[in-house]
Write a structure and sequence with these properties.
The chain is mainly β. It folds into two domains: 99 residues, Immunoglobulins (Immunoglobulin-like, Sandwich), CATH 2.60.40.10; 616 residues, Beta Barrel (Maltoporin, Chain A), CATH 2.40.170. The strands form eight sheets. It has a 26-stranded antiparallel beta sheet that branches. The two termini are 43 Å apart.
């Protein structure tokens, strides 16, 4: 008993000494207008000891010394250092000034929205939440609990995810990385496999729904996704991470930052490799992503930053959708994939994807004065890669037992090889090929910002982009044959193509863009607003080396130019410390996409009078902020006329076809509600509801359908008026909770409900008025994560375990109408069942 008392006394003495040895610092973080800044970061300088402000902007931090410096930071504001001492533990209100530079970010202050000031609907996800919720999900999927968002893995291959905002696909959702637009210059698309490692280096991601806050003329019809990568302005250190997950998933990653050195240089590097078999049958993948940032501060006026990042990857794909009955009949059920098999014992894909798109930018920041700032970014991107498929006789049908090993089995590549070998000098009947989409992209973006008065700020800038898309098909595997006969090249009609030779088509798309933008911002007390104007000239030109002789001047088309412009504005008024309202409206015209001008895939039958796409949008919003509850309500309506719609779909023989649908109109409208409720310091709830009504507004006549060889195979009329816009759930609900079990352990649970998900329409099956698109059954998903922090020797270490689809729900995530728009003919992708991941990170 005496020993027990001594032990308890010693423990009490240790705890008391530890507590008394700490200093408790408190304060409140606000902006220049006195608005509270929840989520601001407070770090004890020279240590990793830090905390974030609560939803009332307050913080309490136990520091290890009796005096020192706190580093206070928040996205969109200048970092501030504040001294503390045991004699001054309550620092009162700490005011952060709006940051016009945000080191290493181009025009971020012009594209990132500020709470209760910028009049747009916005949601922000920071690095800690990305790390907790990403796991093995596709990068866009971490936004699935955001109003208006629908994100899926599509076929389920590595990097094949997609995202829709308010019913608009990636062609009409602007994606900007460090202020630089990354949507494809020809068709507006974003391929997330190009950015597979982005989650490792993102410091914050903000989704602005609707017109957004960007001044640059970008395709933000549905919204804008702004991604900010990590900067070099951090303490020296790094981390090593390792993750494992279902289906052989493994990931190794290393990050290191020098911090700002005495010579004014700071360097951050990151690299990671990811491999796995894939959840879906026959979708193995290998990816390597990297990130490098070198920053040099020359003096108080000039900073130069060089950033390079990319993700080289290759993965098997599930390209072909199937009916519900086919998935039920297949042995592997929802994992069934008809696009792979074995050749000579090696896994071989008939459909795959490989790409590498490094992006390099050089950013210059120049403080001309206390009131005027110029940021300039020069950037280049070189894309190389494409997607695989077959050519020749179609021996790859999922229901052709002659070339399948068993019913709905894998492709019998060995039989195809034997048949090609037997043909000898006749060449291969069936081969594998890759459709390449290489590109060279360069641009410069410069913005000047100056404070005209204390209340009025003027911004203006120039945006130039040059782009060459290089499109061709090449032979990748002759499957046992001696050559593949192809006469599509008029300059070499007797071509007996070997592996690496180009077949079917070989053309370039040349795009030039020159834009100018200007904005006037007003902010005084509780009122803030802006008026923004932009104008752009988009020029298209096409080069075709296959259907025109080298001597034919038509090998290079004329250049066609289209003027686009936009005007938008908004007001935000804070009624008091808790309540606020905002409104925005805008109209802009956007140049038609490249394929709308060259709709017939040649250089002569062009559509130089293709109309601009015309978009009108307006929105009303209400915000509520208190110590416990944060909430938002948004009403929106967007009308889109002369929309350029590119639709891909499966033909009856299971090959892909494409339709350029010009002149279609659409109406997207709805209401969104979201909230965060902090019940206690340890328990937080989040929730949202999004109710949309998205419909096509007119029928379209004389739509041409092309096969994979760019040949017109059919002309149809589309009767789609009042048909619901498909491919995204129009009704979504989410509820989440985060509970701090201990200071080191946090549990997170998320529930998502998806309903009113209509099938995308099949252009070949809408030739007469018919029913609405088939509506996919609604479904509910639960995800859970737990993070535990601890000491591993002298290193701060964390482990994150995550389970997606906890209850292994079977659901359809993507659907395309079949004949009659009914369930038994719809072609679908099933979503993933229960998956897991466990990752550890050691900080040094």
């Amino acid at each position: 008993m005496k020993n027990l008392k001594n032990l308890l006394f010693a423990a009490l003495f240790f705890v008391t000494a530890t507590v008394l040895g700490q200093t408790k610092i408190t304060g409140t973080i606000v902006d220049e207008t006195g608005q509270l800044l929840p989520g601001a970061s407070i770090l004890e300088k020279g240590t990793k000891n830090g905390i974030s402000t609560d939803f009332d902007g307050n913080f309490t931090l136990n520091v290890k010394s009796n005096s020192g410096v706190l580093v206070v930071s928040f996205i969109g504001y200048k970092t501030k250092e504040v001294s503390y001492s045991s004699a001054k533990t309550n620092l009162g209100k700490i005011v952060l000034l709006e940051d016009s530079t945000l080191d290493e970010i181009v025009v971020v202050s012009n594209s990132f929205a500020i709470d209760r000031k910028t009049p747009v609907a916005v949601s922000t996800v920071k690095a800690a939440e990305i790390e907790l919720k990403l796991g093995t999900q596709e990068f866009p999927e971490i936004l699935k609990s955001t109003p208006g968002v629908y994100a899926t893995k599509q076929g389920g291959g590595y990097g094949d995810g997609r995202i829709n905002l308010r019913g608009f696909n990636s062609e009409n959702v602007a994606v900007m990385i460090n202020g630089v637009p990354v949507n494809d210059m020809e068709n507006g698309r974003v391929f997330w496999s190009n950015w597979a490692g982005l989650g490792d280096v993102t410091s914050a991601m903000q989704v602005q729904r609707g017109l957004g806050a960007s001044k640059v003329a970008v395709p933000s019809i549905g919204g804008t996704i702004n991604i900010l990568t990590k900067t070099s302005d951090v303490e020296e250190g790094g981390n090593f991470g390792y993750s494992v997950a279902n289906d052989g998933y493994q990931k190794y990653g290393l990050t290191y930052s020098t911090g700002l050195m005495d010579n004014g240089i700071a360097v951050s590097v990151q690299a990671a490799q990811t491999t796995g078999r894939g959840y879906v049958d026959g979708t193995p993948f290998t990816g390597f992503n990297y990130f490098v940032n070198v920053t040099k501060k020359f003096n108080e006026e000039h900073t130069l930053a060089l950033t390079a990042f990319g993700a080289k990857q290759q993965h098997g794909q599930r390209q072909n959708r199937h009916t519900i009955a086919t998935f039920r009949e297949a042995e592997s059920g929802r994992k069934f994939n008809s696009d792979w098999g074995y050749k000579d014992g090696q896994l071989t894909n008939s459909e795959d994807n490989f790409y590498h798109k490094p992006q390099i930018s050089l950013n210059h920041y120049w403080d001309l004065s206390d009131k005027t700032f110029i940021s300039t970014a020069a950037y280049v991107s070189f894309g190389s890669g494409g997607g695989g498929g077959f050519q020749g006789v179609n021996k790859f049908r999922f229901d052709d037992d002659n070339y399948r090993i068993g019913n709905l089995g894998t492709i019998n590549f060995d039989k195809i090889v034997d048949e090609n070998m037997a043909l000898g000098n006749a060449g291969s009947e069936s081969i594998l090929r890759a459709s390449r989409n290489d590109h060279n992209w360069y641009g410069i973006l410069s913005t000047l910002k100056t404070d005209l008065t204390d209340e009025l700020t003027f911004l203006t800038g120039l945006d130039y982009r040059g782009y060459t898309g290089i499109h061709f098909t090449e032979v990748t595997d002759l499957l046992g044959g001696q050559f593949f006969a192809d006469d599509s090249n008029i300059n070499n009609p007797d071509n007996q193509a070997q592996v690496g030779d180009r077949i079917l088509y070989d053309n370039d798309g040349l795009v030039d863009w020159l834009g100018a933008f200007t904005q006037l911002e007003y902010s005084k007390n509780d009122l803030s607003g802006f008026v923004s104007l932009n104008v752009s000239n988009t020029s298209y030109q096409r080069v075709d080396r296959f259907i025109y002789l080298d001597s034919d001047p038509n090998q290079t088309s004329e250049k066609f130019s289209f003027i686009g412009f936009g005007a938008k504005g908004g007001l935000n008024y804070n009624l008091d410390e808790k309540h606020g309202v905002f409104a925005n409206l805008g109209y802009f015209e956007r140049a038609p996409f490249f394929n709308a001008v060259f709709a017939n895939r040649n250089n002569i039958d062009t559509n130089e009078d293709a109309p601009n796409q015309k978009i009108t949008s307006y929105e009303l919003g209400y915000t509520f902020r208190s110590a416990k509850l944060t909430g938002n309500v948004n009403l929106y309506r967007t009308t889109w006329n002369d929309r350029t719609e590119t639709q891909s779909f499966q033909q009856p023989d299971r090959t892909l076809a494409f339709a350029n649908i010009l002149g279609v109109n659409a109406i997207h409208q709805g209401i969104e509600v979201d909230f965060i409720y902090r019940a206690t310091d340890k328990l937080k709830f989040t929730g949202m509801a999004s109710l949309g009504d998205w419909r096509w507004a007119n029928d379209v006549l004389d739509v041409q359908i092309f096969n994979e060889n760019n040949e017109v195979v059919e002309t149809v009329d589309l009767y789609i008026k009042d048909v619901h816009v498909g491919d995204a759930a129009q009704t979504t609900f989410a509820l989440g909770t985060s509970y701090e079990l201990t200071p080191e352990t946090t549990l997170s649970i998320d529930y998502n409900h998806f309903a009113d998900l209509y099938s995308d329409f099949d252009p070949s099956d809408r030739g007469e008025p018919g029913p609405d698109a088939w509506k996919v059954p609604s479904f509910d998903l639960f995800d859970a994560s737990i993070r535990h922090k601890f000491k591993f020797g002298n290193f701060d270490t964390s482990i994150i375990a995550r389970v997606n689809n906890v209850f292994d729900t079977t659901y359809i995530s993507d659907s395309q109408d079949g004949a009659g728009s009914v369930a038994n003919t719809a072609r679908v992708y099933y979503g993933f069942g229960r998956t897991f991941s466990v990752g550890a990170k050691i900080n040094f």
